[in-house]
Design goal:
Elements lengths: L11 H22 L1 E2 L3 H9 L3 E7 L2 H11 L7 E8 L5 E11 L4 E8 L5 E9 L9 H5 L23 H21 L3
Antiparallel strand pairs: 1-6, 2-3, 3-4, 4-5, 5-6
Helix pairs in contact: 3-5
Length: about 190
Amino acid sequence: MHRTLSKSHGLFAPRRWLAGLLLVSLALPAAAQARVYTTPEQALEQAFGKNYEKKRLHLYPAQKEAIEKKIGRDVKSRLYTVYVGFDANKRTTGYGFFHTERVRTKEQTLFIVVTPDEKIRDVVLISFYEPDDYAPTDRWLKLLLGKSKSDALTPGVDLPAISGATLTTRSSADTAKLALALTVYAKQL
């Protein structure tokens, strides 16, 4: 009896198995680089302790358009969650916004806290699913502190550009602009 080799038998079966293993092993390093840096609960605790309220901000179409004009890009939603921090005397200490945005092909989530006088008080990287080489550094994120809506917040203009992480710095700066623009309406809640 004579046996012939086909694609589903003999020598070809291990090759398919090895090819599949190779594809999985190539995908693992990218997945292993995806990181959650802190939880939203930890970011809120750091920013406000236990003294905050969760509120919903619903923008009218004209408000959405005004924000888009101010930040120079489309805003995908008219509904936002705002975390309003307060002190022992119930005075507002800040407005916190979580924002997730696609950087290149994967997402980044930032938590930005804006003071009542509309300056960035804190920026926390919650998660980053692009390779670590493209992640914004703490040092770069700290450059956003103290910025207000009167600042351009443009990498290469009033913020340094990071070689190899252009899309990340642009996304982070745009998120900061959005948080500042939303604060105007959050103060009315």
